[in-house]
Request: fold
Amino acid sequence: MIRVRTCTPEFISDIGDMLRLFLGDVQIVEAASGEEADYEHEIFEREGRITDCWSHGDLAHEIEQPSPTGTPVELRRARKRQVKRTLYELLKDMTGMQLPWGALTGIRPTRLLYEALDAGLDMDAARKRVMREFDVSADRAELLCEIAEMQRGVRTPEAGSFDLYIGIPFCKTRCSYCSFSSGEIGRNKKLVEPYVEALLREIELSAQLMREAGLHVRAAYMGGGTPTAIPCDDLERILAAAREAFPGAVEWTVEAGRPDTIDREKLAMLKRMEIGRISVNPQTFCDETLARIGRSHSGEDTVRAYELARELGFDDINMDLIAALPGETPEIFDATLEKVIALKPESVTVHSLAIKRSSKLHEQLHVSGAGHTQVSAEGAAEMIAHARSRLTQAGWRPYYLYRQKYMAGNLENVGYAKPGKACLYNIGNMEETASVLALGAGAISKWLFARDLRIERAANVKNIEEYARRVEEMVQRKRDLILPEARS
Reply:
């Protein structure tokens, strides 16, 4: 347990995230009055300047800057960044560690590059500012620039539009690293029918809300879980209702995801529903790893599903990979990568394994001692670096990026696409440039209020049975979020 005393308790969560980057998965608590603290934070203000000082034992680091100005949102952001950067420098001095993302703990580093570009800097000056102010490595700063180039012209949706997300919270089996609120289809088969009926009702009511608000859909995405885990007829009913309720989307994605849920009947139905983009996700082509993480298919099953999709005319396929899966080496990951490159999907998403506390894998690695071998930070970094090198050499380009807590090596997830095949929904959602109407259990609608530079959310309940009983309440939450703004 790490005890912290800070002058800015409102930032204790961010302070904890920074400490965990260097110290691992430790518990962070505020030191009680009179209690000795492991880390102390003080603030000094004088002559229009503000100094933050962090100390740990005999070590201390301080940063002085002019007192920030601007709106309350801008003031809070500036203060938080200085508090975090000062602590980062102390921890860097203390441990000698150089982190690829420097002092950044947020999930969307591209936002910082865009802030610099919006301030009038050119791309090179913006890159240097991110490196200077946040100690981001040259390699990661260049990655941000490459992503900004891919997003040029597609980043900001037109006024009056929104993106649509539909969640199907069922999977054939639950992967050991998964922390989503998804139910295994075998154990929850009786819940599929009431869930589908509830989702159809939410689609109907939400479409009415969007018509009242005068808004239209831009891009639509069905994820999960695994949408193709449910019966084909049920999936078709949902898609037919959604396409009728929200017409005009320029992009429709369905995460077919698990190869063991993909067959000719479902793929033919998706073509009939005019779904242009699908995912066929191997995660790895190593059968031993697939068994270890709880996936009930082989690498050859992935190839079969992919080739069947090609046979039926799908020309926009994504494949997901996960670096640093337990027991894998850089050589095993490279073999998976080469297999994907040979298949030539239009896009490839490379994830760094994030071991969430609610996942089975966290229990296996940290509690039960199930014998899994966790990949080192150096091994994870080697895998991610090789993926970037090989994919870019083969013609894919990075087009979106996000980070998560508890990621292997403090790295990142990156989506790569062939030119012209970047997913609009992914860009809008990850860059938070598009409002998202989200339907289904556990789905979170996210609405942008550009005039106030703020984002507000309306979450649906996660429990499938509760969701089915409370659909009208979930839609009312969206109505309270969206309609007042649309009318103002």
